[in-house]
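Take a minute with the sequence and fold tokens given here and flag any structure token that looks odd. Thanks in advance.
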Amino acid sequence: MKILQKNESSFKEINDIGVVWVMDEAIKLGFYNCNPEWANLGQGEPEVGNMRGAPPRIIQFTIEPGDDRYGPLNGMAALRRAIAEHYNRLYRKDKISKYTADNVSIAMGGRLVLTQIFSILGQGRLGYKVPEYPAYEDLINYQRPRITPVRIPSKKENNYAISSDEFEQAIVEYNLDTFLMSNPCNPTGHVIKDAELAAYVRIGREHDCALIIDEFYSHFIYENGKAADAPVSSAEFIDDVNTDQVLIVDGLTKSFRYPGWRLAWALGPKDIIADLGRAASGIAGGPSMPIQRAALELFEPERADMETQALREVFSRKQNITLKSLRENGMICSSDANSTFYVWADISLLPPPLNNAGTFFWELLKRKVVVVPGYMFDIHPGQQKGDIHFEQHVRISFGPDEENLKMGLRRITELIKSFQQHDT
């Protein structure tokens, strides 16, 4: 029997990651949600509540007597069917192979969906590129050493994405079994779509490399400074929904603007979905019945289209406001960022020491503005971090409502001008 020494714990220490650490530092200085004195341009959630052009928000729902019982591990059949029909309507109208309820697994949040997916991966090599969503680091680490993470570098000139040709080269060079990516990408706002996205799916199929595609920002799509007409999903390019090894992860958090509902799903081959249900038995026990029942209304076609088109209209306007302000202040923002509600801003031309992401972050906290330093997105699961990357980048969110966003941008302007005056 192991004898613990004094002050020795059976539990390991868990460090904050990415936005969690950022928000903890802001909270120490008085930040709290909806505090009107603060501009949270670090937030990973869109504005919630009523929005111009969108349907009324759901503010109450009925709990049926049967909802007090445990529900199905993969979610209730009615909601799984509604989600499948949502994808078929948007992306697979002319396809012979269509999604059914058997192709959908529901869980309480995207990170839980990913946890369950990673738990059923066989031993093998999982590729990912950087910069990427920080939570992936811990989620992958929980499954090591069964999963061997492989870091794929990206190029600045391609807005830190990798082309389909580079993707294929990476599969061959690193002998990848699985590839994980957010598309649209958090943090860069780059979106892989059309022929390039079709190539990703085809290459994965040809090389027997499973794809795990985080599509949480699939409806935040813009073109030439305006709202795009339609969302983007790899579901459009899958040949057979039951043989192509593509798992799509999405949820109500971003595109439907209900982050607090903690409802997400995986879409994929029915045999893999069945395994996810078995994994849920030992991980989460299945999703909430009342929340699932309330969510059914959100997938009514007219309502869903009204919500997501309004979202693109409102957020494309906020993107334009954000880009104009940041560029006028000397930040370099890619012209190829046509999605999400983030700007991946290069601050290298700002007056020192503001051209360092850490300094920029701390100086803005003094002015009650939150942003996320770029190095938070240089993830290294299972590896010691070497050289620091993206220390001259910050992720700036235009998720807040327009007035709060403008307040934050004004304070960023004031900060930069104050340092410019010091230089003169």
Remarks:
- The CA atoms of residues 137 and 381 lie 5 Å apart.
- The chain has a mean pLDDT of 94.
